[in-house]
Amino acid sequence: MAFSLPPIASLNSPLLDQSLAVIREYLPSPFPVLEAIDRRIPVPFKQLAAEAPLNRLFATAITDGEFDDFEGRRIRLEATGGQPGITIGFWAGRLRVLEGPGEATIRGSLNAFKTLAERRQDPDQLFFQRQLVIEGDTELGLGLKNLLDSLEWDLVIRPFTFSRKRR
C-alpha cells in the first residue's frame, strides 16, 4: 500500500504553526551541516547528479541558441548563508557544474529557489521582495533571470512518497 504524506504547508492548524515556530527558534540552522556535506561531495558527483537533468530540462532552449549569450560565463546559485551552493556555466553547447565562484551570484532561501523553479511566483517579485538577491555581475544575473522567465519549462518538486509493504 503506497501513500503520500501531505505537504506541511497544506496542514493549517495552530498547533502545527506553534510547533514549527518552536523548531525554528530552538533548533540550530541546518546550513552548517549542509555546508559540511556540500564541501565533502566531489565536483564529479555533483556533475553527475545535476548536469544531465539540467541539459534535458533546457534542451530545446539550448538547441535554439537561447543560452549562447552565456557561453563561457559562470553563475553561482547559493542558499542563504553561503552554502550549499552550485556554480553553473555554459560551455560547448552544454550547461556544466563547475567548481569555484561565479561572476554573478544569485542567493536566496531554499523555498525561494523552489518557488522560482516551480514558477509559482513571478521572478521579479522574488527579487523585489528581496527573497532572491543578485550580487557581482548583476547584468549577467538579470540576463539569466530574464532567460529563465521567457522559456517554457515545467518543474514540480514533490514531497517524499513513502511505500509500505504488506507481509
UniProtKB/TrEMBL annotation:
Pfam families noted in UniProt: SCP2 (PF02036)
Ranges for domain SCP2: 55-149
InterPro entries the record matches: SCP2_sterol-bd_dom (IPR003033), SCP2_sterol-bd_dom_sf (IPR036527), UbiT (IPR016830)
Pathway: Cofactor biosynthesis; ubiquinone biosynthesis
KW Repressor (keyword) present: no
Function comment: Required for O(2)-independent ubiquinone (coenzyme Q) biosynthesis. Likely functions as an accessory factor.
Listed name of the protein: Ubiquinone biosynthesis accessory factor UbiT
Name of the gene encoding the protein in the UniProt record: ubiT
